Fold:
Amino acid sequence: MTPLEVSGLQTFYGKSHILHDVGLTVKEGEIVVLLGRNGAGKTTTLRSIMGLTPPREGNVRLFGTDATRMSPYRVAGLGVGYVPEGRKIFANLSVEDNLRVPAVRPGPWNTTRVFETFPRLAERRDNRGRQLSGGEQEMLSIARALLLNPKLLLLDEPSQGLAPLIVKEVFQIIKTMRQEGISILLVEQNVRVSLAVADRAYVLDDGAIIYSGSAAELAGDEERVRSMAGASAKEWVTSDI
Amino acid sequence: MIQVILFNVTNGLIIGAFYVLMALGLSLILNLSNVINFSHGNFLALGGYLAFTLSPTLGYWGALLVAPLITALIGLAVERLMIRRVYNRDPVYSLLLTFGFAFVMQDAARFIWGPNGLPLGLPEFLSQPINPTLFFITWYRVFMVAVVIVAVLGLFAFLRYTRIGIRIRAGTLDLETVASLGVNISLLRTFNFALGCLLAGLSGVLAAGQIGLNPNMGDDLLMPSFIAIIVGGVGSLIGTLFGGLLIGVAAALTTVFFPAGSEAVIYAIMMIVLLVRPRGLMGEEGMMA
Structure:
């Protein structure tokens, strides 16, 4: 069963037309990256899939089920974990309480396993969300989504605002998730690192898909990568990932 | 003089305790659903009247337990049938809706139980003073405060330790993210509304034992409860708790030293808070938006 098939999405915020006929697929066991500049519509695509900003037209199929305009909690219930932009951890709750918010779905992930995977979170279990560093918040946001025992994970700019060493750690976790059999749709601005881990890539510009193909092929097109990555291109190291 | 002050402080704490129970319910609903429930005072009256109707069969203690639960169930139905339909609109809609419903509930109570005041019978020992020197403190007053303390501690424990309670607290901050983690927020809000009504119903039963029943008995408690929330800080239940006690005692002490200002004092406190510390004593920045 294909985890995610999106076709012909037209999504609006009020009167502004954000997504124009967006289509994409994530196959089982794949890491797919969705690239594009700020404001290209990457977050809106994820929000349309989650049902947080329902599309006006188009189709979202999750594991063969029509999930178009389904309410977010039901989308999550189909096995979709969502790590939102800016992490959105509950700043007023302790780490442990943050991990008790997600719905309980059967599967390999539970609090014990999460604390084994993210020892840093175990150390800080009694700290409030607002006391965590950016990297710890990102780990918590991922851990929280994993507790749903998802089969598909949507990650919105997990590397945003993190130090390169932490970025490396986060991408390492993403690769581990794939080995666990979780398919991944990754939204990133960090072009080089994400192309290094992804199987396939889509590029979104002004709300429309302008590239769809293998990640390796896109990574080989140095000029294109440089134009997408902009000034930040040289900051990112792709070796050892 | 000492006795007069003591009497009024005690009174203030008891009235404050009512404000707290009312305000905590209002606060729960406001924090999670952005609804200012103007009919909350009528849920209080409903709880009192239900206790009146139930106590001949269930006795006082049975009524004390069951009346708030029925109030909560009615609140649940009201939320499902009406209030949740306006969640996605501007808060003015829910405010007007509950404002209208307050009058419907009040007239319904008048129709069912009559326009005149009714007494709620209490077990004999509760009406006795504790001792002759402290003649103004009846066992009932002690009992009310004890029930309020148990209810408040129970509520805080519920919010702190249970999964639903944790989700309510998380939803206060970011309901959308709670939904995207697979939680049915529609049911969460319904439950939360009913929980608020449970507290109102309980305060109604307690108030009925002290001041008797009448169809608009909740009205005098509603505005001070809003003020308790604003003074304590929107979004903070602990703030609501202190806000309620503070204005209760402040109003009572003003009665001693400057009777003419006893009504105005709580509004003045609210004004000062709004001007000097707009987020309230313990509120989070930006919750009042």
